[in-house]
Design goal:
Layout (H helix, E strand, L loop, with lengths): L5 E11 L4 E12 L3 H4 L6 E6 L13 E4 L13 H16 L9 H11 L9 E5 L2 E5 L3 H4 L6 E7 L11 E4 L8 E2 L2 H15 L1
Antiparallel strand pairs: 1-2, 2-3, 3-4, 5-6, 5-9, 6-7, 7-8
Length: about 200
């Protein structure tokens, strides 16, 4: 599985009838953003992807997520616009490691973003957030977390006994999350970001 390649992903939707459980398999387009070494390492179960936007019209670049490797079709689809692919990969790395507005943003967004970076952020990298009973660590960086009107953060889950799962990434609408009150220690955050850097390299 190659970084920057387009594939179809199987999406399973389940429903309950009166007596039967139905499973319908659909497909959607996505772009692989995790790195070649990680993707092709023995034992890799999940691949980081950016999915196609609902209804078409490009990629939902803020909707970073993971998919089971077995749910991705091995066949690569042709993509003539390699500059666009490069910008998407740059955006994902920037979303985690960047501390300035994204270079390809239009000027009105850049101006608003510079102003937003001057103010305290509601969510910071390393914060612990909760969705119901499940806990997650914010991995998106300050620049991404302050993009005006985006309202999205990227996270990884905390499993039993405080085990971290950097191979699994979730994008959350910040409107459904409470303001965080706790964060992980800085040395743990640095170690986590180094693991994520290797996933994306």
């Amino acid at each position: 599985m190659r970084q920057g390649s387009y594939h179809y992903q199987a999406v399973r939707e389940r429903g309950l009838g009166r007596r039967w459980r139905l499973a319908v398999k659909k497909e959607r387009l996505c772009l692989v953003v995790s790195g070649n070494v990680y993707n092709n390492a023995p034992g890799t179960e999940y691949i980081w992807i950016v999915p196609a936007a609902p209804g078409g019209g490009g990629l939902a670049v803020e909707a970073l997520e993971h998919v089971a490797r077995t749910d991705l079709d091995e066949e690569e689809l042709n993509e003539p616009d390699q500059d666009h692919v490069r910008r998407v990969l740059d955006f994902v790395r920037w979303g985690i490691f960047g501390d300035e507005p994204f270079y390809a943003a239009p000027e009105p967004v850049l101006s608003a973003h510079r102003a937003a970076l001057e103010r305290p952020a509601r969510f910071d990298q390393g914060d612990i957030v909760h969705d119901g009973d499940d806990a997650y660590i914010v991995i998106s960086g300050r620049a991404f977390n302050t993009v005006p009107e985006t309202g999205v953060i990227w996270t990884i889950p905390i499993g039993p006994e405080n085990t971290l799962h950097p191979e699994r990434v979730f994008a959350f609408d910040t409107g459904r999350l409470d303001t965080p009150r706790h964060c992980i220690p800085q040395e743990d955050l640095r170690a986590l970001l180094e693991v994520i850097r290797r996933i994306l390299d």
